[in-house]
Amino acid sequence: MKFFYIINGKTIKTWLLVISIAFVTASILYIQQLASKSVFSTDPGPKAIYKVENKKNELALTFDISWGETNAIPILNVLKKHGVKATFFLSASWAERHPRIVKKIVDDGHEIGSMGYEYKNYTELERGKIVRDLAHAKKVFDTLGIKHTPFLRVPTGNFNKNVLKVVHSFGHTVVHWSVDSKDWLNPGVNAIVENVTQNAKGGDIVLLHASDSAKQTAQALEQIITWMKKEQYKSVPISDLVNNAHIKSKEIK
């Protein structure tokens, strides 16, 4: 016995439409998955960490310092008062001028990261100038007794594939951020606190500043730490945050 199936043009069009919709939906889901990755990458090249998958309710408070000597000490005092450890990214030119503050940062148990020597946009520099800046910074940190700075925050926060490759070849891993406090804008203590507390989750890296341009950070930090304790978040240095954490990647231009 033979069976014959008769399929008209309308049925074919319907099935083609269903298949097309399914394909588009799958593509969108795939793109969204890529967009949710936790690390900038030149896949399969060097990576720039800005967040990790962390199930321990840990996050990293990080402070950039490139100039001034007024705000760093009050911020260090707040951290010490609450027993909080953080990572400080220092421009080596600043560190060279303020060795006593650098020593206090180290003595208080915080982690030191590099921001190179001069605070210049690496994406506007040729490879040789970036290498010289990194080498100058290393020499300064060595002189200050800081022999190992595995993490680097690119000055101005701007980087591309070429910058990542140069920095990686020099032995650093670039650390960006996933939560921006915008404290350098001095928008008010409450605004700084909200910028952090409304967005930070376990595994996030929080950008703060201890340069003199950020005049409200120390006061905001008190409230941020109080919120962290209430929500049972723990601040850890970058090295602890990335240790045994699951790191993903996404491509950058």
TrEMBL record:
Q: Which InterPro entries match?
A: Glyco_hydro/deAcase_b/a-brl, NODB_dom, PdaB-like, Polysacc_deacetylase_ArnD
Spell out the molecular function terms from Gene Ontology: hydrolase activity, acting on carbon-nitrogen (but not peptide) bonds
Q: A Gene Ontology biological process annotation?
A: carbohydrate metabolic process
Please give the coiled-coil regions recorded for this protein.
none
> Can you cite an annotated GO cellular component?
membrane
Top-level division of the source organism's lineage: Bacteria
Q: Which residues cross the membrane?
A: 12-31
Keyword Transmembrane: yes or no?
yes
Q: Which keywords accompany this UniProt record?
A: Membrane, Transmembrane, Transmembrane helix
Its name, as the record gives it, is Polysaccharide deacetylase family sporulation protein PdaB
For this protein's source organism, the top of the classification is: Bacteria, Bacillati, Bacillota, Bacilli, Bacillales
